[in-house]
Automatic annotation (TrEMBL):
InterPro entries attached to this UniProt entry: DUF6594
Protein name stated in the entry: DUF6594 domain-containing protein
Signal peptide: none
Upper classification of the organism: Eukaryota, Fungi, Dikarya, Ascomycota, Pezizomycotina
Transmembrane found in the keyword field: yes
Keyword hit for Cytoplasm: no
Domain of life (superkingdom): Eukaryota
Amino acid sequence: MESVQRLFYRAKNDTDHDIEAGSVKEVEKIEDIPAGYPRFSTFMSSHPSFQVYRRFSSLRTRDLLIKQDRLAVLEEKLNDLDRNEETLSFLASCRRDRNVERQKVLSAIDVALREYDATIKRNTEILKLEEARARPASALQNWIAGNPCIARSETGFLQHEDDLMTLFSSEDGTTMYLEGWVEDKLIRLFSRSYKSRCEALSRDPMVYIPRDSLVVHIARGLLGLLAIIFIIGPVIACNYLESMLSRLIVITASTTLFIGFLLIGTRAKTVEVLVAGAAYATVLTVFITQQ
């Protein structure tokens, strides 16, 4: 059986304590679950990042277009009925309208509009979901390759990489990226020592759960170091520069890098980026002025 490479989970206890019996029960392994969808769904539910599914963007668009065209046809029928109405008083009052055909069309329009509006709202919610990241999608593919318990045709949805969405939304994309990078480095450089800190979720030696938040702490530490460099680095550089022009160049370059980091590495809004950049440049400018 092939092992799943670079697959990790956040800390969990591998055992449950039975208070009444005073014993320790071992948590059921993935391999103990019946093969097939029971095992596959258990694996996918083991971590929020594995909640990866197809968006079916093309089908949703086609469905919406069909409902839209259905409304357009009904609209045209209604317009024809209005233009060809012989009793003008029917058009002046809906209470006195005795045109049965128009009533049927209006009822059909009401039903079609409800379906159309519901589809728009549903699609809007789906489109808000983030695109699935390559890392969890790749981990699922690796696990399926090593555990062929599902029909190949029914796991083919993972091949539609451009149409995958995730139910797991991370508020900080930069931290998530750093966590993945740190995991890869720990596995590559300290495989044995890192594995000793982990608790196996399954009998596959390459599927395990970190017992603590080591990866998270290291990632946040790196992010904090980067913040210190952004804040203290220009100050130290300007302290060794006597020319005002050189200091202004340092401030301009630092502010540009800072704003670029906010735009690329975070989900900050445009106004938030502008405010943060202005505050950052102001602090550095005040420091230079005092010097």
